[in-house]
Amino acid sequence: METSPVPKPHLPPHRTPLLVPASRKSKAPTTPPRPGEAERGARPPDRPGRMAPSTFPALLLAAAAAVMLLLLPPGAEAVWLELPPSGTKCVSEEIQPNVVVLADYAIMYESHPTSHPTVAVKVTSPYGNTVHHNENATTGQFAFTTTEAGNYLACFWIDSAEKGSGTSLNLDWKIGIAAKDWDTIAKKEKIEGVELELRKLEAAVESIHHNLLYLKAREAEMRTVSEKTNSRVAWFSILSLGVCIVVSVLQLWHLQGFFRKKKLI
Predict the structure, then answer these.
(1) Given 98, 144, 154, 190, which residue has the most CB atoms within 10 angstroms?
(2) 122 near 132, Cβ under 8 Å?
(3) Beta partners for 173?
């Protein structure tokens, strides 16, 4: 049996790749960047609407001033009083101790041009002490520093023979930092501008701090009174329950003896 030889596959001859020098390598054509691509990686410049860092202290100062004004209780109050021919008109204000009070009062003749009466003024403390008294006055002023906490009462009445149909009185009541003359303080200490505003804010902070301490003391006082009241109510309830039990036992003992005398039991 004869076998035919298997033909070998035809292989291409081996070719060595040509080495091209580095200097002869072709360079890819460079295209200029587009207008939007060059600026994409760079840091954008500051926009006109962006807030500069130097404006933050001023904004913080303004915010602090607004908060202080909101938290600060009203220190100045103008009151218009219509005084009757007979009788007394009074105004009161709850003030803490160690607070400066300044008030100006004046009769307004424009509302009653035909009569020109005079008034009497009396200001009393919460415990009834007189801190200001004036008679036959058309204008006046009183100033004092409180030593007691509570309602200070200012009463006005017409004390002249010419009463007419009454009169009107303007009362400008100032307490705390509102009673300070900041213009005089600024001239005396030679301060102005931001320093003066900071001084006002400092006074406002001190006033708020004293107000919070006063409220804290009042809260502690009310809590003590509430605890004492609850304790007294609890003991009164226990005593009432004990009395009821004793009375019930006595009633039972009395009824038992009564029924035994009657030979019902």
Answers:
(1) 154
(2) yes
(3) 77, 103
Strand partners, 2: none
The 10s digit of each residue's pLDDT in 163-186 is 777 788 899 888 887 777 777 777
Separation CA 141–CA 116 (nearest Å):
19
Q: How far apart are CA 149 and CA 132, in angstroms?
A: 17
Q: What is the pLDDT of residues 114-150, one digit of tens each?
A: 667 889 999 999 998 999 999 988 899 988 989 888 8
CA-based nearest residue to 108, from 83, 76, 134: 83
Per the CB < 8 A criterion, the answer to whether 90 and 121 are in contact is no
DSSP 34: P
Name the DSSP letter for residue 110.
Answer: T
* CA dist., res. 83 & res. 138, Å (int): 13
User: Which residues pair with residue 50 across a beta bridge?
Assistant: none
Residue type, 236: F
Residues in the chain: 265
Indicate the helix (H) or strand (E) that contains 119.
Answer: strand 119-124
C-alpha distance from residue 211 to each of 99, 113, 178, 201, 217 (Å): 11, 43, 15, 15, 10
| % residues pLDDT > 70 (the chain) | 68
Half-sphere exposure (Cβ direction) of 27: Cα atoms closer than 13 Å? 4
* Residues linked to residue 88 through DSSP beta bridges, in sequence order: none
Report the distance separating Cα 238 and Cα 257, nearest Å: 29
Q: Give the bridge partners for 157, in sequence order.
A: 120
Dump strand ranges (E) for 129-191. 130-137, 139-145, 150-158, 167-175
Half-sphere exposure of 218 (CA within 13 A, CB side): 12
191: which DSSP letter?
-
* Amino acid letter, 23: S
